[in-house]
Amino acid sequence: MERNNHFLFLGWEGKKRDYFLPVFLFTALFFLNACSDKAKEKPASNQAGQNNAPVTVFKGKPNFILVLCDDMGWGDIEPNGGLIPTPSISKLAKEGLIATDYYSPANICSPARAGILTGRYPIRTGLGYEVILFDDKRTLPVSEQTIANLLKPDYATALIGKWHLGHTGTKWLPTNYGFDLFYGIPYSHDILPLPLYDADAKSGKLSSTRVDGSPELQQMFYKKAETFIDANKDKPFFLELALSAPHLPEHPNRVFKGKSTFGAYGDVMMEIDSIIGRLLSKLRDLHLDKNTVVVLTSDNGAWFEGSNNPLRDRKGGPGYDGGYRVPFIAWAPAIIKPGKTGAILSGIDLLPTFVSMAGLSLPRNLEIDGKDISGVLTKGEPSPHDGIFLFNNEDIVGVRTQKWKYVTQTTYRGLTIPLEAVGFPELYDMSRDIAENYSVAATYPDTVKAMQDRIKKGQAYYASFKKGIPEAILKKKQEMHKSGKQD
Predict the structure, then answer these.
(1) pLDDT at residue 125 above 70?
(2) Which of 203, 255, 310, 362 has the lowest tally of Cβ within 10 angstroms?
């Protein structure tokens, strides 16, 4: 603040100056002191854009709401430069923390969801290879500890929306993995027939109905989520609201159909944005906004439609960020500092973070790969990771450190290309080249060697967890080969 103008009256002459000077000096000093105190309260941003201002600390067990979208790309939301209007998500970002360098545990659905719920790289869970198909017998082992398991019995828990971690046998329902309630679909909404299950762990009640291609599906998920929040507003709860959109094919609700100028995909994104707005309003109406952590993210990057801009590649692509690096916003006005962080984070971090923020401890014998990032969210601390592995199925194809990214695999005209074997080691300076356009491997050979060593050690460590190609995937590949759809 400029102070020179506060002393203009000091040039007055005669009696007026003699009379007003003592009074004015006292007033000016009081005013300056008040301004100084206000200046101390003014938010200041660190290098990552994090707000360093203190928040009103909530003491107790916060609620957790994980809004997990399906195939929402990094560039699909306005806070990341997206073209589709998402005002509610923008408000969420303005009041919350945007993590610009957050990575999903996988570049495709089932492995990513396994990683998020268990805090472990998907290869450990047996679900690291491709998505679960309709005739697939794989399920998440019931021995796996999920976020819901570890928050019990302190928390009421629900999974509403898409599951996609197995749908066969007698133990596949999420109610066998720590969730009190499951209201949702077993897999992506492009797989038919599409049943909607309603399961209650306490009563044992289970019902289902067909919802093939329903434009009401996301609204049904949100309505059930509101019912769960209302029922548990007076005790801690964990809700995973796993929307099955904007995954293709798009089925926008009639209220949003034709509303955007970006086709059905844009309509669906506006519907998702509306749901976020309604959720925040609901929390405020119930006075839960001070003790609820809301996380908005996606299971992987955008597929055939949607924007991963400016990231390279798309859903399913190995190595490059477009398949893995997705939106991440954490919102909790009394807990999380607003702003941005460039700390490298991963979906496997949510389990240890929620457990820590709930004041609970992890089982001593539980091996996880995720890190507690509550310090990043609440104090602006740097990432606890020295590196994050990127898997393509059961192989490590990339590693990200805070500054560097090393990629070992890509695809070209239907072929999988091992980049090192063909003489193209790819090292990227992520502080300068978010799009991974210009490899600097030749400039930094020592860094290349260090990143290669990281990957070799990781491959050796996780090798024992490999399960190989699942029977259903192998069968599907053979069918596609015979039909001429695959070279």
Answers:
(1) yes
(2) 203
The catalytic position among 6, 35, 69, 164 is 164
Helix (H) or strand (E) holding 477: helix 471-483
Burial classification of residue 360, based on how many CB atoms lie within 10 Å of its CB (0-12 exposed, 13-18 middle, 19 or more buried): middle
Residue at 350: amino acid letter: L
Q: Beta strand 415-418 with 409-412: parallel, antiparallel or unpaired?
A: antiparallel
**In the predicted model, is pLDDT for residue 278 greater than 80?**
yes
The answer to whether 167 is a known catalytic residue is no
Instruction: State pLDDT tens for residues 41-50.
Output: 333 333 344 4
Query: Distance between CA atoms of 47 and 194, rounded to whole angstroms?
Result: 47
Where is 22: in which H helix or E strand? Answer: helix 14-41
* Residues above pLDDT 90, as percent of the chain: 85
Q: How far apart are CA 344 and CA 384, in angstroms?
A: 8
For residue 54 the two structure tokens come to: 């203190």
Q: Which of 69, 109, 167, 251 is catalytic?
A: 109
Residue located via tokens 């399906």: 70
Residue 97 binned pLDDT confidence (cut-offs 50, 70, 90): very high
pTM of the prediction? 0.88
Residue 58's pLDDT is 58
For 146, which DSSP code? P
Q: How far apart are CA 374 and CA 241, in angstroms?
A: 21
Angle ∠(476,482,486) on CA atoms, nearest 5: 70
- What secondary structure does DSSP assign to 332-357, as a single string? -TTTS--EEE---EEGGGHHHHHHHH
Name the amino acid, one letter, at 308.
N
Q: Are 409 and 316 within 8 A, CB to CB?
A: no
Catalytic residue status for 69: no
pLDDT digits (tens, 9 = 90+) for 191-246: 999 999 999 999 999 999 999 999 999 999 999 999 999 999 999 999 999 999 99
Residue 23 backbone phi and psi in degrees, to 5: -65, -45
Q: What is the pLDDT of residue 486?
A: 53
